[in-house]
Amino acid sequence: MSRPPLISRRLLLTGFWLAGTAIARAQVKRGTDQGIGGTGITRGDDHGIGGTGIVGVIQRFGSIYVNGERITYANDVPVRIDGDAASIKALRIGQLARVVATRQADGTLVTRSISIASEVSGPIEQVKGNELTVLGQKVLSSGKENWRRAGTEVAVFGLRRTDGVIVASLVEQRGNVTPRVTGLVERGADGLHIGGLKLSGVDPLLVGRRVQIEGSANQGVMQASRTRIDDFSDLVGASRLSIEAYVQRAGSNLQLGSGFVAHDGSRFGPAAGEARMVVNGVFDRARGLQVDSTQAVGQFPGSSMPSPGRSPSGPGHSPGGSILHPGSGTPGPSPTGGQPAPGAPGTGPAPGSGPGPSPSGPGAPSGPGGMGSPGGPMGPGGGMGGGGFGGPGGGMGGGRR
């Protein structure tokens, strides 16, 4: 006569059910971190099928708005500003953000980290009207703060025009700054340079590439101690790119002020001259950017021009709607109803912030939850492993030489 089993089938199933319930409760308990404005972002929400790299100026808060898109994040999201660890409280309107955003099951865009990068940081060398010179870089900025004088150390956030001039969206006073510049390395009669800054100790093979360089600067020459090609390899998991830039036509391609070239087959962008735009596309196998849509940008920190979405109609313009699906809708109201969101970054511009008067406080353009120009949901992207574009022989290499 055989012995009865020590554990019955019913008891075993009950045990499995209890274990599963305990795990689910633990996951709910761990997932209570809320996005800015109660967006409900949790660490386990990522149902996206890929990511979109988004590079552009922070337009407003209520989460953050970059390139017209609302991007949510957890209160404890990792933030790095010029490579240094920071918190969301250090975020400011006008900073240039780099994120990888994925779409959740409910259509929400979420990022797991935020990187902020200045275009140049160092001492002001000259002030002339609305023009600053920082490490040999010409900067257009209309701020009137009394610290804007030669010798003051600053970090400049903004976008380069195709002539290399930086249009500042934020100039932030910063002590003990590390001299740093990011831009297109060019070759002149007297050697390599970025803008008006001569370079020493930089590999000539970097000519035509967008490079971030740190070092010591003296009498208009930077001795490089660290160089890094800015090829967006930090946007790991992104199969698409949405990048804000000054753009002009270069044959059948688009030349971006940052130094990159995007391939559009003469379909988008300005027919003549230069325009500030959001350029959207997919990475090809050669790590180039194949453009599938563009949208003109009319308003940005430091400007008093018409708002995004009110761009003129015509070839290459996509009035209203999403930046990846133009015409799919119109900008909606602030998701926080014009009220500051709990834990929102800064209640106004940073001390010594960017050009032009910009009221701060709840519901104001520079305060959290203020009015802006949100776009529609972004299109899904496929998966892609680590790596960026612009490598040797790649499709997004340099412009001016």
TrEMBL record:
Keywords: Signal
Signal peptide range: 1-26
Residue segments, region Disordered: 296-401
Pfam assignment, any one: DUF5666
Start-end of Low complexity biased regions: 301-328
Keyword rRNA processing annotated: no
Compositional bias annotation for Gly residues: 364-401
Annotated DUF5666 domain residues: 122-172
Record's compositionally biased regions (Pro residues): 352-362
Name of this protein: DUF5666 domain-containing protein
Organism of origin: Bradyrhizobium neotropicale
